[in-house]
Structure prediction request, 140 residues.
Amino acid sequence: MTTTDTESSAIHTLVRDTVRADPAGNGVPETGESTAQGPTPDHILQIGTGFWASKTLLSAVELDLFTVLGAGPMTGHEIGTELRLNERSVSDFLDSLVSLGLLARHGDGAQAHYANTADTAAFLDSQSPAYLGGILEMLN
Prediction:
């Protein structure tokens, strides 16, 4: 499993900030990149956080989000109300799915509308004959 550019950037920032905060100095590169000076935790963190993308997808499938959006685009507030989601986390959750290419977003802020992509409409809307969400539910 690979990480997205956003995840990779977040990992790099975490590593950089952790290394800079190292009061002992231990010869660890400030950038968190491998050099002749010593090892870095990049590979370990990539593996450790590799579940983020899959857990986001699996949560959306469990919530039946893609089927709800099968009726058409909705605002974050409408989705949150329909799925009974915590109001504070709705936009982060939906925008994570956008960044993973699993939802489309039109507009910004509270007025943004979210919709299925062609792939999620075909394979993750339970009303589709090609639905494969059941397999994903078993993996969750």
